[in-house]
């Protein structure tokens, strides 16, 4: 997973992000994207040179990219609706923290209430349960700590 933040995205900036998101040994076969003007000639040439086929969604059809819409909704509901973002560095720090929380601690119903990075069930013998803050205290995770 890769994300970055800028106030004024351009086709050149977006083209650089696609390179950073997919090192040469992990390039996907297809890229599903919308028709935003940010995906201009420089971006399209970059994607072509990487051997990625572009698939365009229909205009005004967010349902055609449900996975992206779902994660954007989760980021908004779980994080950004509760934070006042001060600047681009602050936003990147918040998103990095949320990404770590999302993959290590946030439970997902589709994963049997586990997180994407599975964790072992801790034995009661390990000690009492303590609450540890995540995303600047916006969320928490719980662990057993030895006395």
CATH superfamily of one domain: Ribonuclease H-like superfamily/Ribonuclease H
Strands side by side in the biggest sheet: 1-2
Gyration radius from CA atoms, angstroms: 19 Å
End-to-end span in angstroms?
37 Å
Mean pLDDT score, rounded?
89
Uncertain stretches? none
Helix content: 25-40%
Beta-strand share of residues: 5-15%
CATH fold annotation of one domain: Nucleotidyltransferase, domain 5
What assembly state would you assign to the polypeptide chains in this entry?
single chain
CATH architecture of one domain: 2-Layer Sandwich
Shape: elongated
User: Structural class, from helix and strand content?
Assistant: alpha+beta
CATH secondary-structure class of one domain: Alpha Beta
Helical run tally: 4
Give a count of the beta strands, DSSP E runs of length 2 or more. Answer: 4
How is the biggest beta sheet arranged? 2 strands, parallel
User: Which series of helices and strands comes N to C?
Assistant: HEHEHHEE
Give a quick summary of the entry.
The chain has helices at 11-21, 41-49, 66-78, 88-104, and strands spanning 30-33, 53-56, 128-134, 139-145.
């Amino acid at each position: 997973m890769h994300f970055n933040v800028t106030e004024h995205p351009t086709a050149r900036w977006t083209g650089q992000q696609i390179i950073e998101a997919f090192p040469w040994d992990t390039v996907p076969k297809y890229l599903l994207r919308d028709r935003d003007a940010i995906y201009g000639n420089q971006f399209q040439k970059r994607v072509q040179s990487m051997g990625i086929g572009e698939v365009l969604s229909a205009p005004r059809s967010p349902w055609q990219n449900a996975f992206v819409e779902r994660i954007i909704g989760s980021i908004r509901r779980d994080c950004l609706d509760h934070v006042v973002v001060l600047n681009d560095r602050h936003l990147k720090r918040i998103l990095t923290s949320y990404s770590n929380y999302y993959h290590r601690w946030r439970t997902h119903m589709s994963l049997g209430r586990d997180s994407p990075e599975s964790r072992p069930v801790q034995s009661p013998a390990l000690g009492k349960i303590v609450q540890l803050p995540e995303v600047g205290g916006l969320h928490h995770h719980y662990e057993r700590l030895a006395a």
